[in-house]
Amino acid sequence: MSLDRISDWQKFSNKVMKHIIQYTIPQYQNENDERDQVGTWTAGDCMNAIKRYVSRYGKGLRGPTEELRDLIKIAHYAQFCYDKRKNELKCNDVYVVSKFENYGGK
């Protein structure tokens, strides 16, 4: 088995996108489609949500499927946290990317 971190990440990010479409939007987006509950959160609030899911890891409280779903939720909250913290710090992105950029991969 060769290491292909880009392909692994792309497969995982597709799972996160499916989670957003099938779970997050139907459950949390309000009727006017403008804002969900995370829209009002700070980066610290997002980090606290991540900590909550991390603390459940390995305890088997909700079964293996939900444990895996929690990992997807952590990734999604990490994206929220990154964007919110970047704005709070008034910083630029760590890596500026464009749609057609060559990242030095294959």
Could you explain how this protein is built, in words?
It is a single chain. By secondary structure, this protein is mostly helical. The protein has a domain at 39-94. It is built from 3 helices and no strands. The protein has helices spanning 5-28, 43-56, 64-89. It is globular, with a radius of gyration of 16 Å.
Instruction: Please report the total strand number as a whole number.
Output: 0
Low-confidence stretches: none
Q: Any idea what the shape is?
A: globular
Percent in strands? under 5%
User: What distance lies between the first and last C-alpha atoms, to the nearest angstrom?
Assistant: 17 Å
Helix content: 55-70%
Oligomer: single chain
Mean pLDDT: 88
The radius of gyration over CA amounts to 16 Å
Count of helix runs: 3
Instruction: Note the main sheet.
Output: none
Question: How are helices and strands ordered from N to C?
Answer: HHH
Structural class: mainly alpha
